[in-house]
Amino acid sequence: MRSAVDALLAKVNQLAHGACSLLAAPRLSILIYHRVRAQADELFPYEPDARRFERVMSFVARSFRVMSLAEAAAGLQRGDLPARALVITFDDGYADNAEVALPILRRCGVAATFFVSTGFLDGGRMWNDSVIEIVRACRQPEVDLEVFGLGRRSLAGLAERRALIGALLPRIKYQSLADRDQAIACLHDRCGAPDLPDDLMMTSDQVRQLHRAGMEIGAHTVRHPILTTLTPDEAEREIADGRKRLEEIIDAPVEVFAYPNGKPGRDYDQSHVALLARLGFKCAVSTATGVSRAGDDVFQLPRFSPWGESLSVWGTRLLVNQKNTRYEVLGAPSGAGP
Q: Among 48, 148, 198, 229, which is most exposed with the fewest C-beta within 10 angstroms?
């Protein structure tokens, strides 16, 4: 019964997007994901698990023309982007991208673009995951975090732990890489957490596996810094060295990029846009919300992932986002009208 309903929803969505294409130039939707867990995580119930992700990907495969990012950006530049164009992207390089998401993508017959921060491959861990896993593993009923400006915080239940993670992440995100490391060490000491997991991120072999399966591999720096916190030379090294390592792993060119964190003006600036062009990248994505059209800057393409347990709600939100052509770019909205 569910498959029949999903097929009907896909057909309705396809017709709705087709109607939009008749009334306006084709628009490119780019979905953004980070993780697809094998089972739902009680600490982050809104993140997609395998069951939910497969249902959405089956819907996407029936409703859209799924493309690689490089292919879609070229279509935008030529002005011949097909109707209902869509790109699926993953950021950071989590192991479950290869272990959970890849088999689903293959069953659904669609490809995706994976942006990998190379500094965490083969046993590394991103700073935000260190925060999450420290708080998850802490066995104390409350913890003194005055050093972070948070006072004493309760860890009595999942709601309190979610709230603490939500309070800690923005306090650490914009620190320098060295200060991030110090903050994580301090948090680990205060919470008395045990050893943290070292299998959250992909191995180099898993990156190769994605590439061999026809997935697009994109650069995402080495250590996922906020580019605006770096000197120009540091930013170039992060971008160029991350790309070089990926090209060594897959033995193929890496031509697309995702800005870490990705907020225009705050996380990257015009110098980084110009740097990507100088380094020979074909396009880049931000985390501004919207859809792009022919003539938009292919080095600042927006992304959007709908939310909601119901597939009908998810599809409706994706359709509504088709109107969002005036998305944020550096200093001004993109687009001019419907």
A: 198
- pLDDT tens for residues 247-278? 999 999 999 999 999 999 999 999 999 999 99
The predicted structure's pLDDT at residue 308: 82
First to last CA, the chain: 37
Tokens linked to 168: 């800690």
Q: Tell me the C-alpha distance between 38 and 36, whole Å.
A: 7
Report how far apart, in Å, the C-alpha atoms of 286 and of each of 85, 169, 208, 236, 272 are.
18, 19, 25, 18, 12
> Using CA atoms in the order 113, 309, 201, 170, what is the torsion angle rounded to 10 degrees?
100
Q: In the numeric block, which tokens belong to residue 39? A: 């089972």
Half-sphere exposure of 79 (CA within 13 A, CB side): 1
- CA distances (Å), 34 to each of 112, 115, 138, 195, 291, in order? 12, 10, 24, 23, 19
